[in-house]
Specification:
single chain, about 280 residues, alpha/beta, Rossmann fold, Alpha-Beta Plaits, eight-stranded mixed β-sheet, four-stranded antiparallel β-sheet, 9 helices, about 20% strand, globular, binds the ligand O=P(O)(O)OC[C@H]1O[C@H](O[C@H]2O[C@H](CO)[C@@H](O)[C@H](O)[C@H]2O)[C@H](O)[C@@H](O)[C@@H]1O, hydrolase
């Protein structure tokens, strides 16, 4: 695979990253980007080539951050980050940036769940019991996710549940996060764009900002890359392509073929930096 981008802005981002990698930040989503999509969220694991790619690339960059809707500690486990060599520059921003794990310390920071989430969780469970018993609930700290991938009619159940689940989130002042056959009700005040911006500020800027994602929850990170470009920080939006979501590919500078393509792209970047 040749390292290139489809847009002039993406090519400028790539050139800036290659010229000054030690001040570059690369953000990566987990589900659908580092990990193939599977029916049962509990069975998701990073693609076998993902961790070796991170180990090759992270020592060469300023920071690599896994920015995910999963709890930080769970993402660490599912990627296999704990104790792996070469990851000193890796951070995990979990729960859309509410939680954090740093390889350098091995510690997780997670604020307490807002009380509104417990009430919303109970209402969502009651809604499913009444109207969609074949949908699945995933409980997370500060969030509840309704999955319809294993329902008899996944798209139909998703469409039917979308408004009622959104209404629960709104009634409790929580965020509503639709994704790939998932509807999340979660603590407000965080998103992947703010998470990326926080990292950039903490590091005192970047030579280049990259984000790799596949789903609607990744769009705020693409927005942040666009904002930083306008402010003079070159950037690249990379889409982990799928047949389920079109919005990210439409906005991306680079589209690769799912998690296998992401791992190959990261390896290619590491090889170009190592030359
Ligand atoms: O920010 P992410 O790392 O992309 O997490 C977003 C949500 O992804 C998970 O659901 C998705 O992956 C599942 C496993 O492959 C799949 O079954 C489901 O259909 C997808 O929507 C996860 O379960 C959620 O908690 C995450 O918030």
């Amino acid at each position: 695979m040749a390292l290139d981008a489809a847009t002039p802005a993406g090519r400028a981002g790539l050139a800036a990253l290659l010229a000054d990698p030690r001040r570059a930040i690369v953000g990566l989503d987990f589900d659908g980007t580092l990990a193939p999509i599977v029916d049962d969220p509990a069975q998701a694991r990073a693609h076998p080539d993902a961790l070796p790619a991170l180990q090759a690339l992270a020592p060469l960059l300023g920071r690599v951050a896994v920015v995910t809707g999963r709890p930080a500690a769970l993402a660490v486990e599912l990627v296999g980050l704990a104790g792996a060599r070469g990851l000193e520059h890796v951070t995990v921003l979990g729960a859309y940036g509410r939680e954090r794990w740093d390889a350098a310390t091995g510690e997780v920071q997670a604020p307490p769940e807002p009380p509104a989430v417990a009430a919303a969780r109970a209402e969502v469970a009651e809604l499913l019991a009444r109207t969609a018993p074949d949908a699945h609930l995933e409980d997370k700290p500060a969030a509840v996710a309704v999955h319809t991938r294993r329902s008899a009619d996944p798209e139909g159940a998703f469409a039917r549940l979308r408004e009622p689940v959104r209404a629960v989130a709104e009634a409790h002042g929580l965020a509503f996060e639709p994704g790939r056959l998932v509807l999340e009700v979660r603590a407000p005040g965080a998103d992947k764009g703010a998470a990326l911006r926080g990292l950039l500020e903490e590091l005192g800027g970047a030579s280049a900002l990259v984000f790799v994602g596949d789903d609607l929850g990744d769009l705020p990170a693409f927005d942040e890359v666009a904002r930083q470009r306008e402010a003079g920080v070159p950037g690249i939006c990379v889409c982990s392509g799928s047949t389920e979501v079109a919005e990210l590919a439409e906005r991306a500078d680079v589209v690769v073929d799912g998690p296998a393509g992401v791992a190959a792209w990261l390896q290619e970047l590491a090889a170009a930096l190592d030359r």
